[in-house]
Write a structure and sequence with these properties.
Shape: elongated
Number of strands: 16
Strand content: 15-25%
Distance between the termini: 216 Å
Radius of gyration: 62 Å
Length: 359
């Protein structure tokens, strides 16, 4: 067995195999050197702060490939200015190597507008800030949705959710201020359904029931009845029901009378008869004033001054001849005013008697 391994023919075959393998390896590396330009390197040119058009021209002349990537917008630099490059300038690279350039875009990157309609304004502000949009003017408009976002505006036009805008763009928001109270309902009778819906929306009411006579849902039909009635007072945001037909309102008199019996309830305003029982009502008691009775002021009789005694030279009279003279004072009856109320008269007071002088 060992003799066969060391046979000269076997040794020749092993040497041939080793030579063939070595030749293949050498040829492979040689081919790789020729294919990859081994030892031939190119210095990366410095294209920093140049415009992207100039940088592309320089790289093409150097035999290098390039890839442009939009970088974060920086208003300090010019639009389309090269801000970064990889590999760095001066590096040795092979011919055909791809160079990545970071370029300042023309403006901020575009972002999608989030759907903030019918949401509370505080939540809407936070969502816009998260995507990089700013809130400009807030316009309050009468609406049943108080403090909710009704519309988004950009440069005077209505903005839809999902639209693309540059980052840090300022948009305006229309926010509901709550419904107005006691607004007159517009007259819709005689208009088409399409016109009636436009007027309802214009007056900030809601379209309620729309009933077509022929059930064709044709918005060119004429409105012949509405509820609430025209010129009634309602709050904004309330629904207005309309009935439409191909016929004119004059031809729909019977249907209008039927609807009036349902939606127009008459209230009897005639005053009730006097024979009806009236609920007792509280009345304040009348204050009676007692008649003032004037009291009779007694009149004090005047006293007469006594006459001086006259001495007579005549003989004194006898007792029988003497006459007693008594002066009776005059009494005056005081006047009393008769009061309205029946009161018992007071008895007259007797005047004091005068002194009696006996001559």
């Amino acid at each position: 067995m060992l003799k066969s391994l060391f046979h000269w023919k076997v040794l020749v075959n092993l040497l041939l195999a080793a030579a063939i393998f070595t030749g293949l390896v050498w040829l492979t590396f040689r081919w790789l050197e020729m294919h990859t330009n081994h030892g031939k390197e190119i210095a990366v040119p410095n294209v920093m702060n140049r415009s992207v058009q100039d940088a592309i021209k320089i790289l093409d002349d150097s035999g290098l490939e390039y890839e442009v990537d939009s970088f974060k917008y920086d208003p300090k630099y010019r639009p389309f200015q090269v801000l970064q490059i990889y590999p760095s300038p001066g590096s040795r690279v092979k011919d055909g190597r791809t160079i990545i350039m970071k370029v300042n875009p023309r403006t901020y990157a575009q972002v999608s507008v989030p759907d903030i309609l019918d949401r509370y304004k505080g939540l809407a502000f936070r969502q816009l800030e998260q995507v990089g949009l700013k809130v400009g003017d807030t316009i309050f408009e009468p609406s049943i949705q108080r403090d909710a976002v009704i519309r988004m505006m950009y440069n005077g036009a209505t903005l839809k959710p999902g639209s693309l805008l540059p980052r840090f763009t300022t948009i305006d928001l229309v926010i509901g201020a709550g419904p107005k109270r006691n607004i007159s309902v517009p007259n819709l009778v005689g208009l088409t359904v399409q016109e009636a819906k436009a007027i309802i929306a214009q007056n900030l009411f809601e379209v309620g029931l729309v009933e077509y006579e022929d059930n064709n849902n044709d918005e060119s039909d004429i409105v012949y009845y509405q509820d609430p009635a025209s010129y009634d007072v309602r709050d904004q945001g309330m629904q207005i029901d309309i009935w439409a037909s191909k016929k004119t309102p004059a031809e729909m008199g019977g249907k209008i009378a039927q609807l009036n019996s349902i939606y127009r309830i008459k209230i009897d305003t005639v005053a009730p008869s006097q024979n009806y029982y009236e609920d007792p009502m509280y009345r304040a008691p009348e204050r009676r004033t007692q008649p003032q009775v004037e009291r009779a002021v007694p009149v004090t009789p005047q006293r007469e001054a006594p006459k001086p005694e006259v001495k007579s030279t005549e003989a004194p009279k006898t007792a029988t001849d003497q006459k007693t003279t008594v002066t009776t004072p005059k009494t005056t009856t005081p006047k009393t005013t008769t009061p309205k109320a029946t009161t018992a008269p007071k008895p007259d007071e007797k005047p004091k008697a005068k002194k009696v002088i006996v001559e």
